[in-house]
Fold each of these.
Amino acid sequence: MKFYQSKLLNSFSNLTHCFTNKQNGNLAFHVNDDPDRVLKNHQNLAQELDYKMETLVHMKQIHSNSVHIVTSNDTFYKPPTCDALITDKQEIPLMVMVADCSPILFYDPKQQVIAVTHAGRVGTFKNIVKNVIESFVDDFGSNPSNILACVGPTICQKCYEVGKEILQEAEEKNLNYAIKQKDDKYFLDIRCILKKHLRENGLNENHIELSPHCSKYDAKFYSYREDRACGRFAGLISLH
């Protein structure tokens, strides 16, 4: 089973992390796939990465900027409704599922806190990164300069054409620096915005990693832009 992993996070022996791909199968229950097959994909992933599937916390993602602190009520079968999860609990894997949106893995090695974030265009425009970093600081005593962030495979600017209404929204939010116009078409760079937000919220330049993989261009990953009936790949992180 092949995974894409972060060079930033690979050096921590007390951390399990990965970004899955099509080889791992669809991991989302909401995309009209056979539930038994999705469950089997989760079971295989748990076995491969050596965690108990029932302890994994994923999300009912709603394209918000809502951050949820994991509690004992959150289980594989009772996912919270939010777009970011954060915890300092060991042996509780966190998962974000995507198909062109940006999956972000966070880790503070000083306070031993992890987080996952679903950053689509809506969540990115709402600056979900700011809310995640604020939770690290306010709820877990983190110093932003200690936090590491890895943005996983996501749709690149060349493949992400948007309409004029998105340009107008970006201009209203002072995010139009991330839109390139070519002829009468507009192309959005989500990674550019995420990196700026991470830096503005106190992360060091060398603590930010952006995957070079485009989820639409690289056929290893699911892409909603390529196939609206596609599955979801995932970013996962767990403390030991």
Amino acid sequence: MKKFQLTFLLCGAVLLATAQNDDITVCHTSPTEKFAFFAADKDFNMSHPNPVPYVHQSETGKMVTFKTPDGKEASGYVLMAKSKTNNWIFVFQEWWGLNDHIKRESEKLYNDLGNVNVLALDMYDGKLATTGEDASKYMGEFKQDRGTAIVKGR
């Protein structure tokens, strides 16, 4: 049996917002409920300026699709190590979705860490937000079951 080492990174402001806002209580709630709470919070929404559009160019990374346990397909941005390895880093998008900023940050990790595979998961199934309203909507619509299926996909 092969042994896999997984490292999870969150490229987002949800945990940061939790740490900075003493008025938020997040115990005894599911991650999905926490996301919905932040999506509805005006201060949280106002603290995120709209992303500056740009196109990430890469010779290494590419978009891929894979099957998920719920019978659907998911997608992600993958950068495969130059030498075969079981070392993987999963990158979770910000509330904007799997945009070119997340792809660029994933590629930075890939280049900085060396022989590692990096997969940035598309937790919104292709939806990309360019405004806070859209980001809030997509974050509020996120379903834990679908998110779990995406993470467990192959």
